[in-house]
Amino acid sequence: AKSAGGNRFELADPEADARAITRHGLTTALPTALDRGEFFIEYQPLVHLGDGSVRGAEALVRWLHPQHGVLSPDRFIPLAEHTGLIVPLGRWVLEQSVRQAREWRERHGGAESLGPLRINVNLSPCQLTHPGLVQDTVDILERTGVAPDALCLEVTESALIGADDDLLKPLRRLAEMGVDIALDDFGTGYSNLANLRRLPVSVLKLDRSFTQSMQQFPADPVDLKIVEGIVSLAHSLDLAVTVEGVETGAQAEQLRILGCDTAQGWYYARPGPPERLHELALVDATG
Ligand code: C2E
Ligand code: CA
Ligand code: CA
Ligand code: CA
């Protein structure tokens, strides 16, 4: 820290300056990054808690920036939302991911024991309000020949809090077509649980904070009750429960006992290239 007596300008936080400069630089570079092919997608497996089989994967976008290296989505998704690039970027992620799902399915065609791998793709709130969402999704599924039920779109709970019918209409259309809708980061948004009945969702993705509280064995009794309550409510509404951020076997075991259906986290695999998912699924099927 700067000692007293320095002038006001010297008192500025140099790290904050660096962050602001980087943010400005990233915002400037963002619009052309898509055309330059600087984005890529990693896939993280979704594992069935009951039998440990790989059921699919979540697509997670990264930016390979020519100067800064690989940037995590938390660094650039907010900028993409702010500049509007999220619409073409989100469409690109959707198309790449669905193509990837088709490739997995084709490569798995010969292996009887392998169930069809599904693909989860994140949707930003800006994409929800964009009028092209339903048509873009239909076009991508038709172009790739992938069935709608192989796709799950993840929308955060906070994006749907207080959502009116106009916002829900495109999600309803997609759900009617057979696309699954998952409520991401569930449990962080203080939404009215009764509200769940209004939403066209078929999966709850329990936020990582719940998984973290399962670190101790036995876990905090209040957290156990909360998760137990969410799972029983979800199942009574015919919703599946996915847990994220599973880092240890103890967490997986607790969450399995609590009745959660599917899990995702470093305990199973970090996000990685698409070939990795194919290998994991194959190993899984052959024992
Ligand atoms: P999210 O949808 O909640 O994704 C889960 C995040 O948790 C990912 O971070 C994933 O890498 C991380 N994760 C997975 N397993 C573990 C674990 O065991 N422990 C811990 N500590 N973390 C784990 P990531 O890849 O950095 O993505 C961050 C967020 O960026 C995502 O959160 C999502 O909201 C957003 N995002 C990623 N890809 C896209 C995209 O294509 N479109 C949009 N709109 N948002 C995206
Ligand atoms: Ca997600
Ligand atoms: Ca999440
Ligand atoms: Ca999250």
Automatic annotation (TrEMBL):
Organism encoding this protein: Streptomyces capillispiralis
- Residue limits of the EAL domain? 23-285
This chain's protein is named Diguanylate cyclase/phosphodiesterase with PAS/PAC sensor(S)
**Which superkingdom does the taxonomy of this entry point to?**
Bacteria
